[in-house]
């Protein structure tokens, strides 16, 4: 099971409930295959950087999904045939998340080591801010 | 590059290494557009001062953002 992020752009002229219908359809496809939808985020209407299918604005939706490769293939196929969806992008996030977790664990370990060292030497422990 | 410089050019540092920004996401257009000047071309490393692993990830993120119409391919 890998983490994926699917971002797609919907025709801005359709109604909000149409978009909700599309979202539930996609969620249905994912859960039917055995995956889970972690988050559905409607990012709202934005101006596109270049015209896509003659549209200048679009409604962005972001889905965070935990699934296998064939579920994603099926989801992309569905997105391609859906009329209101004009563009989609699927990104694999699991390696990035693993790398970030490793960095955070590394930093936490260093902070722990520094604080114990400072305690032994009698100096106050320095503040270690963990960037996100 | 030059023959002999009398003055010292200030040492360029990688913005991501200094601020410890871990993930360069294609979604934050504000961060990415700092490295994309007017013509929408990606700024080379020798000008922006980014280190090579971060430049690779930055390029990746910019290409993804361009594909999903968050950043333009070219502006006129």
Structural account:
The complex is a heterodimer of chains A (132) and B (76). Chain A is 45% helix and 36% strand. Chain A has 132 residues and is an alpha+beta fold. Chain A folds into two domains: 2-92, Ribosomal protein S6/Translation elongation factor EF1B (Alpha-Beta Plaits, 2-Layer Sandwich), CATH 3.30.70.60; 95-132. In chain A, a hairpin with a 2-residue loop joins strand 2 and strand 3. The relative contact order of chain A is 0.21. The mean pLDDT of chain A is 85. Chain B is mainly α and 76 residues long. Chain B has a domain at 24-67: Ribosomal protein S18 (30s Ribosomal Protein S18, Irregular), CATH 4.10.640.10. Chain B is 38% helix and 0% strand. At the A-B interface, strand 2, strand 4 and helix 3 of A face helix 4 of B.
Main attributes?
heterodimer; A: alpha+beta; 2 domains; 36% strand; B: 76 residues; 4 helices
Brief overview:
The complex is a heterodimer of chains A (132) and B (76). Helices cover 45% and strands 36% of the residues of chain A. Chain A has 132 residues and is of the alpha+beta class.
Which helices and strands, and how do they pair?
The complex is a heterodimer of chains A (132) and B (76).
Chain A: E1 2-10, H1 16-33, E2 36-52, E3 55-67, H2 69-81, E4 85-92, H3 94-121
Antiparallel strand pairs in A: 1-3, 1-4, 2-3
Helix pairs in contact in A: 1-2
Chain B: H1 15-19, H2 29-32, H3 45-48, H4 52-67
Distance between the termini of chain B: 31 Å
Helix content of chain B: 25-40%
**Structural class by SSE content of chain A:** alpha+beta
CATH homologous superfamily identity of the domain at 24-67 in chain B: Ribosomal protein S18
Most extensive interface between two protein chains, with residue counts = A-B, 17 and 16 residues
Main sheet of chain A: which strands, in order across?
A: 2-3-1-4
Q: How large a portion of the residues of chain B is in β-strands, by DSSP E? A: under 5%
pLDDT < 50 stretches of chain A: none
In terms of structural class, how would the helical and strand content of chain B be classed?
A: mainly alpha
CATH level 3 topology of the largest domain in chain A? Alpha-Beta Plaits
Report the biggest beta sheet of chain B as strand number plus sense, adding barrel if it closes: none
Roughly how many Å apart are the termini of chain A? 24 Å
Shape of chain B: globular
Percent range for β-strand residues of chain A: 35-45%
The largest sheet of chain A is: 4 strands, antiparallel
Radius of gyration of chain B: 14 Å
């Amino acid at each position: 099971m890998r983490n994926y992020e699917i971002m797609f752009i919907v025709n801005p002229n359709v109604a909000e409930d149409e978009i909700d219908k599309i979202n539930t359809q996609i969620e249905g496809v994912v859960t039917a295959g055995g995956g889970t939808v972690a988050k559905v985020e409607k990012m709202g209407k934005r101006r596109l950087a270049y015209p896509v299918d003659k549209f200048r604005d679009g409604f962005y939706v972001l889905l965070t999904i935990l699934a296998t490769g064939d579920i994603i293939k099926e989801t992309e196929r569905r997105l391609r045939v859906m009329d209101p969806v004009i563009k989609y992008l699927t990104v694999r996030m699991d390696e990035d998340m693993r790398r970030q977790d490793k960095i955070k664990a590394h930093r936490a370990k260093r902070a722990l080591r520094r604080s114990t060292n400072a305690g032994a030497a009698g100096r106050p422990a320095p503040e270690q801010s963990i960037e996100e | 590059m030059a023959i002999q410089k009398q003055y010292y050019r200030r040492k360029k540092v990688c913005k991501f290494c200094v601020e410890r920004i871990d993930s360069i996401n294609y979604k934050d257009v504000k961060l990415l557009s700092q490295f994309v000047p007017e013509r929408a071309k990606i700024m080379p490393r020798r000008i922006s001062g980014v280190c090579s692993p971060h430049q690779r990830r930055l390029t990746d993120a910019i290409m993804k953002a361009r594909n999903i119409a968050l950043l333009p391919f070219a502006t006129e």
